[in-house]
Amino acid sequence: MKTEKIITIVADSHLMADNIARAIGATPAGEYHYAKEGYAVTWTNGSIVEASYNPKQPFILSDSMTPQQVYAHNFDFAVRDYDKVVGYDKKAEDLARLDAIKALFKNSSLVINATMPTPYCDLVFWNLYWYLAVPVKTCRAWLPVLTNRAIRGAIYNPRIDDERYKQYISKVIYDKFLEEDEIWREAEAEEQAQLALKAAEGKEDDEEKPIIYNGQEVKLVDYPVLPSFLSLLVTASAEFGYNHDETADAVLHLYLKKLISFPSDIQSGVPYSVWRNMKRNMRMLRYNSRWGEQAKALKKLSRRCVIKGVSDGAYETYGIVTTGLHPTDLTGKERIIYDHIVKQVIDAFTPFEGE
Description:
Blueprint: E1 6-11, H1 14-24, E2 27-28, E3 33-36, E4 39-43, E5 49-52, H2 67-74, E6 76-79, H3 83-86, H4 90-106, E7 108-113, H5 119-132, E8 137-140, H6 148-156, H7 163-188, H8 190-200, E9 211-213, E10 216-218, H9 229-240, H10 244-256, H11 272-285, H12 292-297, H13 332-349
Parallel strand pairs: 1-4, 1-7, 7-8
Antiparallel strand pairs: 2-3, 3-4, 5-6, 9-10
Helix pairs in contact: 1-6, 9-10, 10-13
């Protein structure tokens, strides 16, 4: 008897998978996945498969190849081996997880990549896909917020042949090749680089240089903007005394608890569609115990944080905003950082006089 095919949804963490499963009504169906009729939700536990690249090997390229296929032909994929780091046989656990995910792939008509919306997580998914080597159709569920409505919309109406994703993943893979090639070049030229560095020591340079982070120029402004992941790291360290790991953990859990949008590294603006949704979300902030009165006083929203020409589905992340859900069950650090985000969101959308 022929088994009916399912749709498998892949998240990068158990907590992310749990959010997705609850949104679509799936329940635990084993150690490694959730299930409901026609669907399975599983997770990778991070970069379970790692990719390695050697630019000295012949580069394989064809006009008929997709960017993902170019990636597959020029990288080698292997299961991570952290046994010495963690002190126990973790690789065996990872292999068991991969066997379970492979079985789901073989029984699927479609696999949905529902990892967090970052280039790194896209590569986590494609490393897994090419390592398992199960030819099944895929698509991307882009989830900058984890509300039930957003999750169900992305899962039940997947964009299988989305041109915007093709452009996005092309750049992600191209940047990965550049990054790996640069690593090799730096290794080969290390001695020359050290000599150049010594020669440059002691030289004064009064010319003002742009601030660069992750290859992007950071532009400083003198008005309130939405928080970014980088700005939260700095603020939490200076004002609250948190180290970066503590802040990162709290911010990620706020996202996974559906209270904020995905924490972009440096972006402090939003697309127009997100600004429009903030009208409703701002009404929910009136119930915030600390900043509710300021939210009530806000009769209209400033548009100075709107990024022109960018849509919320263009595979971009944006400044951190609240989602309109009421916070419950927060730790002390999560509460403090959430309140700080609320204040920045209110300040960023508060119009200047005459605006």
